[in-house]
Design goal:
single chain, 317 residues, alpha/beta, Arc Repressor Mutant, subunit A, D-Maltodextrin-Binding Protein, domain 2, five-stranded mixed sheet, three-stranded antiparallel sheet, 11 helices, 12 strands
């Protein structure tokens, strides 16, 4: 067979697969909704294409020749690949394979990503999870395929990015578990007078966040002493514990086994504070992966981790 692929009727390969499965011209014709004479002509065209008899007749039906048996596995693999590529295939987490790379600020995912890693380990062991702290060029990394998802604030990146709401809420105050204010169920701005402040800043919003905090506190006659600005959450937590400082953080700190042992989270009573620092967190996915069964499954898992009205995550299914 020396014909270029462009000159070959690919329907013949489907017919050959059906003949292999049925071992009967009549049954193959019924499967393909054509007449028996038409199927016989198709078999003749296959013989001319492959320059081989392909099948011989016996009392038990068609018997494939050695040439046909050599073709069987490659043929089935090619047709299965073409069908799954064109029409999609049913997704099974237990047999899925791949790698998912997610970036997010640590404080946004300090409990949800560990839960996701555990869930994948048990339910989809062939899917490997990678995570990293958010970088300034995360949008470009999503576009070029270096990243699969980002979790961040809704920044209106453009039409090529799909965003899915995760939660809306205001951060709470983190402070050492042994601080006297930790005994209170909630805090007011006046409670924070003279306490040092640690800022974990995020790409693109650090100046706004710091300026907003300083302006808000100054309006209440409080001078904020920012002793550390960092992108590293563990360092910020260590400074909080050593210096008796406070910082802004998510409300679900109690879900973290590591952080909740030494730090507590308390909501602020001041409505002005909540309004100024409201967070709209979203899951970001580039359009290039919107038709991927694996990516869509991971996306739905992440979305299921959050409720619609509470900034505190819920469990995976």
């Amino acid at each position: 067979m020396n014909k270029p692929l462009a000159q070959i009727d690919l329907n013949l390969l489907v017919a050959l697969r059906t003949l292999l499965e049925e071992r009967s011209v009549t049954k193959a014709a019924e499967r393909l909704y054509i007449t028996q004479p038409a199927m016989s002509k198709t078999l003749q065209r296959l013989r001319e294409l492959f320059e081989d008899e392909l099948f011989t007749r016996s009392s038990k039906g068609l018997v494939p020749t050695p040439k046909t048996l050599e073709l069987e596995q490659p043929l089935l693999q090619v047709l299965e690949f073409m069908e799954s590529s064109l029409f999609g295939s049913e997704f099974h987490p237990a047999t899925a394979k791949g790698e998912i790379h997610i970036c997010a600020p640590e404080m946004f995912v300090m409990t949800s990503l560990p839960d996701l890693a555990s869930y994948l380990f048990n339910e989809a062991p062939g899917v490997h999870l990678k995570s990293r702290n958010l970088l300034d060029d995360y949008a470009d990394m999503l576009a070029n395929g270096t990243l699969d998802f980002a979790i961040y604030l809704d920044q209106q990146l453009g039409d090529e990015y799909a965003t899915f709401p995760l939660y809306t809420g205001s951060p709470s105050i983190w402070l050492p578990a042994d601080h006297e204010l930790a005994e209170q169920p909630s805090l007011s701005i006046s409670d924070l007078i003279d306490m040092p402040y640690v800022s974990v800043f995020l790409p693109g919003i650090a100046p706004l966040e710091i300026s907003g905090m300083q302006t808000l506190f100054a309006s209440h006659g409080i001078q904020v002493h920012n002793i550390l600005r960092t992108t590293q959450l563990l360092i910020a937590m260590e400074v909080i514990c050593r210096q008796g400082a406070f910082m802004l953080g998510p409300q679900n700190l109690s879900d973290s086994r590591l952080a909740s042992a030494s730090i507590v989270s308390r909501p602020l009573e001041d409505s002005e504070f909540k309004s100024l620092l409201q967070v709209d967190a979203v899951l970001i996915q580039h359009q290039r992966s919107l038709n991927s069964p694996l990516h869509n499954w991971i996306r739905e898992l992440i979305l299921s981790r959050y409720s619609d009205t509470d900034a505190s995550p819920t469990g995976y299914p």
